[in-house]
Amino acid sequence: MGVVVPLEEKSVDRLIEPLTRLVADDMARVNQTILSRTGSDVTMIPEVANHLIASGGKRLRPIMTLATAGMCGYAGAGHVKLAAAVEFMHTATLLHDDVVDDSDMRRGKAAARVLWGNEASVLVGDFLLGQAFRMMVEVGSMSCLDVLSTAAVVIAEGEVMQLSAAKDTETTEDAYLAVIRAKTAALFAAACEVGPILAGRGKAEIAACRAYGMNLGVAFQLIDDALDYGGSAAKLGKNVGDDFREGKITLPIVLSFRRGSAAERDFWRRTLEKGEIVDGDLELAFATMKKHRALEDTIERARHYGAMALDALELFPASPWKHALRDAVEFAISRAH
Questions:
Q1: What's the CATH superfamily of 9-334?
Q2: Which residue in 129, 196, 290 sits closest to 298, CA to CA?
Q3: 263-311: pLDDT as tens digits
């Protein structure tokens, strides 16, 4: 029904393999750190945390911290703790997101809130944020602490912005992009920025890594938006059309609403604002998006941000790290081919 047909997962994953090979040793240390830091005498904490942490995911954000540190020639050990902190921040936001969104699935499994309840999900998310900040302090870089703590604030602002815009079909493209820059891209940007800071690089390199992460993060989220209407449940780790059923305003909706007829706008208001969804509405949503090229143009927007991410890397000399980080951009985009 959708127009986005994902490639075979293995062929897409091949694009990220050079990067995962380069960070393999450090990533093993990150995983070890994650396991040790989820330990607690309060039994429910490791149960809830490990349910999500062990459920898969590419761990792109911590990989970015390791990779940008590697590209910038960092030779210490601080990047391992910062990468673990980044993953904890991401996991905490997922736990909180699922409560806010009433989501039942995460990465193809029952969401933690379904198994342990909303209260436990929120509180374990808070525990992980606390552990993330402890690790940042242990690294001893005030600049890195500033970058990651600022990201935590921006992410929370993004969540509230999204809540304010929930079910608002008149959300503009600019307003939506502001939400995903805060909610998703800010952590990608911070994850990439702390690598060159640890390596003692100058302002230009630090800014370039941040720009790479920010633009990659926006591209990544836009592809996720498109996949919700044209991907597969196996690929998404949730049901296709969940954004529609939850009344989420994403870029394909924004474009379809803006380009639609009066009748089509009434359809979006009924289904998304009022939540009055009947049989056949998801198929009609697909057809309306196809008519207005909303998915194709969402992917085109993602390509634009991907191109800006690639441009940011041009400041750095050729290296296996730079080449692998370029492939990571293609990986993010190619999930929707």
A1: Farnesyl Diphosphate Synthase (1.10.600.10)
A2: 290
A3: 999 999 999 999 999 999 999 999 999 999 999 999 999 999 999 999 9
